[in-house]
Every structure is written in C-alpha cells, then in structure tokens.
Amino acid sequence: MWLASGITSAQMGKTYGILGGELCKDETLDKAFPVLGSICSQTTGIVALSFVIWVIRPILPHLALADVVNGIPDSAPAGFDQWTSPIVLPAPNTTGQNGWASSVARARAFVAQLTLAEKINVTTGVDTGASSRCLGNTGTILCLHDSPIGVRLTDFVSAFPAGINAASTWDRDLIEKRGYAMGSEHKGKGVNIVLGPGTNLARVAAAGRNWEAFGADPFLAGVATAASIEGYQSAGVIAGTHFCGGSEAKQVESSNIDDRTLHEVYVWPFAEAVKVGVAAVMCSYNYINQTQACQNSKLINGVLKEELGFQGFIMSDWAAMINGLQPALAGLDMNMPGFIGYGIGDQDQPDPSTATNSWWGSELSTMVNNGSLSETRIDDMVTRIFAAWYQLGQDEDYPHVSFTQHGQQTFSADGQLVNEHVNVQGEHYRLIREIGAASSILLKNTKNALPLRVKNLKRIGIFGSDAAANPDGANNCAGGATSHGCSQGTLAQGWGSGTAYFPYLVDPLSAIGTHIRSINPTVVVDAVTNDFNLKAVSDAASLADTCLVFVNADSGEGYITVDGNAGDRNNITLWHGGDNLILTTASRCANTIVVAHIVGPVLVESWIDHPNVTAFINAGIPGQESDEPEWAVAYTMAKTREDYNADVLYTSSDPVTQITYEEALEIDYRHFDAHDIEPRFEFGFGLSYTTFVYSGLETAPHPRRDADHTTTSAPGTAASPVNPVGGPTELYDVVATVSFTIKNTGPIAGNEVPQLYLGFPASVNEPPKVLRGFTRKLIAAGSETRVALDLRRKDVSVWDVVRQDWVVPEGRFEVMVGSSSRDIKLTGSLEF
Ligand code: BGC
C-alpha cells in the first residue's frame, strides 16, 4: 500500500520483507494489501543486531521482579506491605463472544498459517527510525499513532478540543461526534489504531495530563470514554486507552489502590469502554500496587480479560515494559514501539523476530524454545490483534499511511515521498466550534455582563498574552520545543504526545475584533498583550467600558518541562502573572470579564469576589476555534490547594515512588461532600443565560431479575471462564428509572444538564453522593421537558472485595437530582 504512494521497493523490502513464509501465501492479506505479492518477493530485510542492550540490561531500573510462574507478587518497600498485586494466571484466550465470533474465527484461521517468526512480527513493533511512518508500526500492516485530540505531527488535520472540554459539555452525542470526526481523520491518514482517548481520572488537580481525559468522576469519564470509542470505532479506527491508575506525569510510581476503589473508580471507565467493544487498550507507565501496569496480571488477565471479557488486544505504552516474560504471562499482547527504551541501543531494527533491542522480538522465540512461554500465548496475542483488525473492517479498502511522524515535508532527506498532504479536515471546524462553545463554562455573571452587548459598546480593553496569537506561530516554540512544549499566546491545547498541529488557530483578539466590527464597527478596541506591562493595562482599562482579561494555565506530559513544570503543574495558580493582570484591570475597569484557558482547576480567590470582576468563563482548552460559553465544570475548583485530598508527590527517595490512594472512593467532589468543605465552584457547576425550574420527581424500580441482591455470575478467577464483554450482562440491566420535569422559565432558549446523584445505604460507606446519570437538554424559553434517566444494576452496586463481585446493598438509596453536585433541586428514594 505504501508502494502506491511512492515508497520505493527497497524501502518496502525493509518494511515488508520480514513477512516471508506462510504469510505471503495468505489470501486474506493479499486481498487487503494488494502490494503484498510484490513485497513477498523482496529479500528479507537487513537484520541490524544491537548488543548494546545486553550490556545495559543489568543496570536497568526496577528489575527486582515478581516470580509470576510461582505466584510470588512484586514485593513492596517497608511501610507499604499491604499494597501488592496478586498474580492471576493463565492469560485468558479470546473467546469470540458478544459480537466478536466471526472476527475471532477469521483471526484464528489466519494465525494458524503463521510461523513463530511471523507471529512475533505482529506482536513486536518495528521501524521507529527515520524511515518510519507512524509512532508505532507492527505486523508490517498496522499503524499506531497519537493523539486524543487529532492526528499528531502532520498537516491538513484538525486540532480538536481536549478531552476535558469534551467532558465539560456533558453531552454524549457531541462527544461521540467528536470521536467519529477524529476517527475519520485518523483513518483518512491511514492510521489503524488511535492512541486515545485518554481515560485516566483527574485525581490530582495539578496532574499534567488531566486535560487529555474526561475529568474527575468515573461515571462521567465512563460515559465520555464509551461515547468516544463508539465514535472512533464507527469511523473504522481501533481506539486505545491508558490502563490504568496513572494520575501523575512522572510515570514511575506505584499507584497503591485498594480493590474496591480500583473497581468503583479507576477501572470503571475502562469497563464502559469494553462494554461498547473497545478493540485495543494501552497499559500505562505507572505501577499498580508495586507491579508495572504492562505486567500486572491481576489487572490484565484478571480484570480486563476475565472479569470484563475484553476481546481485543492490549499494547504497552511506549517503552513502558520493564521485562519480557512477565508481561507475556500477564496478558500483554503487543510491545510498543518495540525497542527497550528511548536512547537505548538500536531503535530501528528492521526485523522484530530477530530484534535484540527489545523485551520481545527474538526474546519471545527464546522464551518459547526454553519452555517459559507457550506458543499458544503468542497465538492468542496475534489472534486478538487480528480479531480487532477484522472487527473494525480494516481488511477492506483501508487507506494507506500517507504521512510521516518525522515532519510535514513532502520528501524525506533521501528523496522518498513521505507526506502526501491528504486533507482530512472535512467540515470538522463546525463541530470543533460547537464543542468549544458547549464546553466553555460560565462560572460568574453579574450585572448582566454576559452575553456581551456589542451594540452598546464604545471602547473595549482586551488584555493578556492569552488573547493573542503565539508570536512564533501556532505550532512553534521559541527555543524549538516540539509538541506544544511552551506557553506562548492563547492556550488551546496542553503539551506532549496528546497534541496535534493546529491547521490554523483562531486567537481571541482577532475573533473578538472581527465579531465586534461586524456589529458595531466604531468600537475602539485597545489591546495589551504583554502580561507584565501593567502600566499600559491600567491606562487602557481606565478608558474602557468593558474589559476582557485572558489568562491561562498549562500542563502536559512529563518528558517536556515548561517553565520548570515537568508535566505536572508546580502550582495551581494562573500562569504569566494572571492574578495581577486581572487585579490591575479590575482596579480600573468596572466591567472586567475574565476568560481562562486552563488545563484544570486554578485558584481564583484573589479576584473572584472583586466587585468589578463581573464575569468569569472557564474556556478549558478548546482546540482551533472558540465561542460562547455554555456548560459545566468536570472537576471541583477549590478555594485553596490544601482543600484537595490528593496532590502531586514531586519528590521521593523510593526507587518507585509510592502514591497511596488513601482517599479511596473520595475522589474530587466526593471528598468535599464527605468533609463538608466548601469549594469555590463545585463539580457539575455552570451558569446559564436562562433559568430552569425542576419538578415532579418519580423513582420507579424495575422488576428484579435475581433474588439475592447480587449479580448472577461471579467475575472470573484464574481458572474460570471469561465473562461476557463488559462483565456479567445482568450488571447492565436497567433496575430503575428516575424521571422529572424541567421548565425553562427564562427569556431565551438554553441548555440544561440535569445530574442524578445517589446516596447509598449507610452500611456500605460510599461517599455522600455519587454521580449516576446526566443528560443535556436544549429547552426553549417557556417550554418544559420530561427527563428520564435509567439506573443500571452496576450503578446501584458496590464492589464486594470478599465475594469479588458487584452487590446491590440492602436499604434506602437517596435520589438527588440537580444542576450541579451541590445544587440539588429534587430528592427522593429507591429500594431494591
Ligand atoms: C504516551 C502515550 C503516547 C505514546 C506515543 C507515550 O509517552 O504516554 O500517550 O501514545 O507516548 O507517543
């Protein structure tokens, strides 16, 4: 396929020559990849062996590993003894249940024809050097590529609003459309597997990668993850997520999480992903209970594959593996990007099956030959990978890879066509704008400051570097950092691998200027975009009737440090002297409107109650376009940093930092509720330009399907059969419906997001309220609508660690319906 786009046959030989043998005789593949015939006649690629790894292996960190075979878990450092992860063996084979039967059968038939070397070529990534096209390449057919906001590192693509903005819309349909649009762009460029969406929860306010994912609540993140995956996969790409429990950017940490919290909080969104048929999952860099995520047999074999019945494949995060045999036994199916570590040895060995700079590659053959790993485990790895490929229909007319991760230039240094500049943007800018608007959160609005009445404006002051374009260009950084690893100009995405190039970036200053001129061309627009020229700000503010102050706070992935922030933010205050900019403006301008482009919560106490700060919009990080505010915050904004119960652990003397999730179930608003701490803006809060009245709550339990308050099938144990996809089907039965009426009593149409929270019976020690339903409704002025929210059995269950099962507790559930986690409008009860 790449041949057709101008890649030379010599290069193809390097890429595809490793196929060889039986694979070249396979008709399925011949059909899917018509160039295979010519490729198969190429000589096997050059095998560039690197022995460096043998030299450095002994000094690689964290090699004091569990004895998986003998069931001995990784040990914990003193004081953390209870935080170990049990060994769960064997790795369950894919079963083909729940809609996967045909794909698994086809994959099995195909895999049966492969030699061991060919199978290894599918499990182990290859070709990450200068000639590689995607961030991950495997099986000589699969392109794995970032990111959760667009196709990374190439051109003619869209830069979508971040995951945190998607969650802030509280709109499942919009989130699914976003997934579909991003999936279409990836497919259009030839990407098979998108490395997204980000699914980790925002446990810690300052955590660097929070913006890539869907906020601080497992239910909201679960809905957003499932909707995104449905979107991606209906466009035809395989979606991957980060599994699991990585809450900080430093990545070599043991997230010590108890079993109940793991199930009810951190695995929850992944279960929703599996339930909707996610075809690929990525394990994370962090350790969970001392065991690195990619070799955590409890999580991969036990939870993901048995309990949740996951039928797809699990790949490692990039160079996350720290061992070869353990991940293979623990259920890992694909090693990405193939080499052992960044900067370690040869990064670009052309034949995975003989590669020596890999935890797998030739090592897998050795493991099979010496009996430590059965070939059937490798068969299942490859079956899962091809089952996912068939499941998404990627064997039919899939676009070829038409870009390279190494730049936007058309030809490589040696004259090969590497970027065909395929334009995949379509009309996505419309959706981006819609989500940008739906995810901008109005947090304060006094004196009718918003919406702006442009007709009445005479003179407006616009302040802050965040209002303006990046002087080095939207995708550049002074000093040359890549992947948006700097904070210059308006902030529309964070930094790291979760990024994409802007095709253009609508900066607020130009957009507002154009908007104002289209309505009232005589308005004087005074802009000061130097955050520290407070004299100029003050002078302009004193003349203006309305002032807009743009401020921001940035964060990203830990491999880039920006202004001393190594991924995670060092503080949760505004960047670039934002507080001073606001206070200087407000001291001279009676109508000061603050717009914040922020990756997560910031402290606003020094100015939020200032009488001249009339309005505050949290616009998140909206991607290439931005618009009017609409909905609600997907995390708690506290009054002080200390009000949060979890924080980044910046330094530690442990070889593997120990981060114990002592707060257990009390993530975010659950903690504020449980300890009666008043937040500045609570989870789920967002103002509207209109008003709503709630009434008529009804709670209707549905007939029971079982007698003993438990699910009918226990989750898998090592030797038990794999559960249906997503877990026991009874867990997803609707057990009750909560309905109520919302009337728009204001003057204009508006969106409302009713939120359903449950208070569990006291005996089970849940936090005071947990989100279990929401929807977003556009209601015309004066109209009312009846809303019905279903509760599934899982929504009213707790994870019983002794029974290792979901259990519906006896007793009274409090039903709370409101427009935020603290603005409860209706209450009722339910019993099961
Ligand atoms: C990140 C992943 C990303 C991968 C490839 C890793 O560092 O954690 O999210 O997909 O790199 O760029």
Would you kindly provide a written description of the structure presented here, covering whatever features stand out?
23% of the residues lie in helices and 16% in strands. It has 832 residues and is of the alpha/beta class. The longest helix is centred in the N-terminal third of the chain and has 18 residues, at 172-189. Bound molecules: beta-D-glucopyranose (BGC). Beta-D-glucopyranose (BGC) binds next to loops.
Give the structure's gist in a few sentences.
The chain has 832 residues and is of the alpha/beta class.
Q: Which range best describes the helical content: under 10%, 10-25%, 25-40%, 40-55%, 55-70% or over 70%?
A: 10-25%
Cofactors and ligands: beta-D-glucopyranose
Low-confidence stretches: 1-64
Find the count of extended strands (DSSP E, 2+ residues): 28
> Radius of gyration in whole Å, from Cα?
27 Å
Shape from CA axes?
globular
InterPro entries: Cellulose_deg_GH3, Fn3-like, GH, Glyco_hydro_3_AS, Glyco_hydro_3_C, Glyco_hydro_3_C_sf, Glyco_hydro_3_N, Glyco_hydro_3_N_sf
Keywords: Carbohydrate metabolism, Cellulose degradation, Glycoprotein, Glycosidase, Hydrolase, Polysaccharide degradation
Catalytic activity: Hydrolysis of terminal, non-reducing beta-D-glucosyl residues with release of beta-D-glucose
Biased composition (Low complexity): 710-721
